[in-house]
Design brief:
87 residues, mainly alpha, two-stranded parallel ribbon
């Protein structure tokens, strides 16, 4: 979940511009370290939830991304970049 491997080692050094997908951000180890919503804004293009998550978790992730943009934690262009890579 660390941004350094994605931003530095994957995107900047070799110039990878493809889709980066998270592991299930609702896993116990990820939630313990970052929280469900904290993991959603850490540089991935597509954020995955595990099989036991539902609408409440999806809504929380969507809200976290919107708030991160509103508070300047994510650039306004970041969600559009991610969306472009998923298509």
């Amino acid at each position: 979940m660390s941004p350094r491997p994605v931003t530095g080692l994957l995107r900047e050094e070799p110039g990878f511009d493809g889709l980066v997908v998270s592991d299930a951000v609702d896993m116990r180890a990820v939630r313990a370290r970052y929280g469900l919503t904290g993991a959603a804004v850490r540089g991935r293009d597509l954020v995955r939830l595990g099989g036991t998550s539902g609408e409440a978790e999806f809504t929380a992730l969507r809200t976290a991304v919107a708030q991160a943009v509103a508070h300047g934690e994510l650039s306004e262009d970041r969600p559009a970049e991610a969306a472009h890579r998923t298509s």
